[in-house]
Every structure is written in C-alpha cells, then in structure tokens.
Automatic annotation (TrEMBL):
Entry's EC annotation: 5.1.3.1
Pfam families: Ribul_P_3_epim
Active site, UniProt feature: D33 (proton acceptor), D173 (proton donor)
Keyword Metal-binding: yes
Protein name: Ribulose-phosphate 3-epimerase
Binding site for substrate: S8, H64, G140, F141, G142, G143, D173, G174, G175, G195, S196
The protein's required cofactors: Zn(2+); Co(2+); Fe(2+); Mn(2+)
Function: Catalyzes the reversible epimerization of D-ribulose 5-phosphate to D-xylulose 5-phosphate.
An annotated Gene Ontology molecular function: D-ribulose-phosphate 3-epimerase activity
Pathway in which this enzyme or protein is active: Carbohydrate degradation
Cofactor annotation remark: Binds 1 divalent metal cation per subunit.
Family: Belongs to the ribulose-phosphate 3-epimerase family.
Length: 228
C-alpha cells in the first residue's frame, strides 16, 4: 500500500505560498483548504489563489472544499488546476452527480465526512469516488488535536472498501503528526494531511519523509495492510 503525505498550506505562510510549496517538494499532493465562512466558521482562500498556486508548483493540488454549494463550485476548481477535489457529504445536494462531473473534468473525486457524520449511509456511493476523507477534527481551523474517537470510523470505512473490492484511497485530516499518524495508519488510512507537523518543522521536506516512513511501517504491520 502506497502511503501518501499531503502537506496542508493552511499551516504555511500565505505571503510566501510559492516558496512554501517548494519547501515540501517530494510530497505526493499539496492540500489546499478552501473555506467560505459559511459551511465552516473560517475564511481562507479561493479560486485566484488556487490558479496561481497550480502554476507555481509541480506538486498536484488536493483541494478540500469546506464550502456551501460545492455542486456549483467544485467543477470550477478542477478548471482552476486541482488534481483532486473533495466536497463535503453534508453540503452536496447531489453527491453522485457531482463526483461524476469532477471525474469527467479530469480530476479525482473525493467526499469528506465531518466527525459526527456516519460513513454507513454513504456505503453505496463509494464506487463513485476515488477517495474518502474522514475528518479527525471538526473542520474549520488548523492546529487542532487528533480525535482518537474517529479511529473506529476509519476502521469501518477500510472494511467497507475491502468488502466492495474498491481501489479507494482513505484520507485523514486533522491533528496528524508524528505522535498520531501510526494510529491512523493502523486503523486503515493511507493518505495523510499534515499541517503544522510539516510546516512547523525546521525542515518540512524531512518531516514529510519521516511521516511517510512512520505510516508505511504501521500499515505493513496492520492486519488490513498485510494483503496490500
């Protein structure tokens, strides 16, 4: 199972985004949080920044839309340069149609779930997706502590993926660090969003490598990872 580490620019210096992207070269994706101050109580960046960032780095952009009306906006973020677009299950009016539209435009389609949203009601939608994001904090702000109570939900999601034989990535976002990544990996995650754990390090690129090694070792030792 290939581990992927996606540094979150929410923890980067917004005045130096091009340089901050260069600082994490070797990462699998660059995670970009788009917040509208409606779906979540915070306002970050939007379309013009995504367009500029996509031109400034060769790292593909992993867009996480914490916004209302993703059915309208998500396809436009593909056109702005995103290689993967994640919409929230709680905000999408027609998630299957939206996932298909994102894919049709050439990006990977992903769906995120807040901590309080159960995965079970979305089991039938999984074949329409390329990735599921289990939030391990309440979305809206960086720097929060990892919620260990999400580990059973990660395990159940991994079991669903295996049950249906899907080639589906399982991402976690929120409080991922050197002290939490192994627990998330053992539970079933293989894509990890890390903000302050990367950009708060003296050497961000080295932090990415360390996190990847930790997660890889945990997956290799986990029951679910033995078949991959």
């Amino acid at each position: 199972m290939a581990v992927q580490i996606n540094p979150s620019i929410l923890s980067a210096d917004f005045a130096r985004l091009a340089e901050e992207a260069k600082a994490v070269e070797g990462s699998d994706w660059l995670h970009v949080d788009v917040m509208d101050n409606h779906f979540v109580p915070n306002l970050t960046l939007g379309m013009p920044i995504v367009e500029s960032l996509s031109r400034a780095t060769d790292i593909p952009l992993d867009l996480h839309l914490m916004i209302e009306d993703p059915d309208r906006w998500a396809p436009q973020y593909v056109e702005a340069g995103a290689g993967s677009v994640t919409f929230h299950a709680e905000a999408a009016a027609a998630p299957v149609r939206l996932a298909r539209e994102i894919r049709a435009k050439g990006a990977r389609a992903a769906m995120a779930l807040k901590p309080g949203t159960p995965i079970e009601q979305y089991e039938d939608l999984l074949p329409e997706l390329d990735m599921v994001l289990i939030m391990t904090v309440e979305p809206g702000f960086g720097g929060q502590s990892f919620l260990d109570i999400m580990l059973p939900k990660i395990r159940r999601t991994r079991e669903m993926i295996a049950k249906h034989g899907l080639d589906l990535w399982l991402q976690v976002d929120g409080g991922v660090s050197a002290t939490t990544i192994e627990r998330a990996a053992e539970a079933g995650a293989d894509v990890f969003v890390a903000g302050s754990a990367v950009y708060g390090a003296v050497d961000p690129a080295a932090a990415v490598r360390t996190l990847r090694e930790q997660a890889g070792a945990a997956i290799a030792a986990a029951p679910w990872g033995c078949d991959h």
